[in-house]
Amino acid sequence: MTVHGSGIVSSELFHQNKFRFMNTYHDAKTGNNMDNNDQQTNSNFYQQDLANQQGSPYMGSGYGGPGSSHGCDSSVERKAPNIFQQFALSFVPTQYGRLANVKTGSMIGFVILLTLIATIIVFISPALSFSSDNVNAMMDLIPDFEVKNGRFSIDDEFTYANDEMFVFLTDGVHRFTYEQVSSIADRGYNFIIMAGSERISVMQNGEYQQYDFKSFNRDIPLSKSWIVNTVVPVLKVIFIITYILFYVGRTLWYFLCAAVYFLFAMLIASILHKKQPSGALFRAAVYSKVPMFCVAVLLDVVSFVNISIPFIFRIVITMAFMGFAIAKLPENN
Is the four-CA dihedral 8, 13, 16, 18 of positive or negative sign? Predict the structure, then answer.
């Protein structure tokens, strides 16, 4: 009968080894030595005893045991989502537990990429209007003119009119009066330019202004060629710089608003008795802004939808979204 247990086995091996030791001592006195087989057998018994004392590799720290690295461990942290997964998960408040594991650098990169894409989308329409083809088409509409020595001269009278804009240029008269410009505005035009040889009159949305050509800087050769070769390239550079500054400001504004939402996130977590680290709450504030941010950009781009969401309404929706996300965050014990 086989008895399990390292204590019984060790006692049995002890008596066996004691018996062999006595035989070895007797052989040594008679001049005889143990043969190789006996030495190997004795060594195997000691190795077996050591193995039994150490225990089975499948117990304790072995496979499936408490110290095993192969067993199922529910506390193993999930891999943090990438930037594209962050965008998708930001619309699902029940998944904000995964977003809480996002590293700070990845979160900042996500916001930078988000505001960059939004700026590019908004930038597309004005950029197309400043394309070379559109600019050349606009310049073809403008006749050759020149302002020199305080006088405006043009080859032929020029008239342009569309739904809201009216332009009339001539050097046949010296100037136009307010009454003349107002009579054009009464036809439904919101932006009016009328120029004579000495003065240019401008009316926009009922506001009237006039400028004398003699007050212009005579060192600047004001003409169509000067506008095409100097003004238009400068306007393009100003346009690009303006949108870069707009992008930087938009990104900083996003983080500033997220910081304000973070204060409310701490208040919400306190009310709900949710034990969450500040990093998880700040990430909830950052990602809860994404849905309304995307809606606002979409409404700005879609020209046929004349709808604007009030800023206070966006705040309320974002706060509600963030509160629900915090309520669904796993408890941090």
Answer: negative
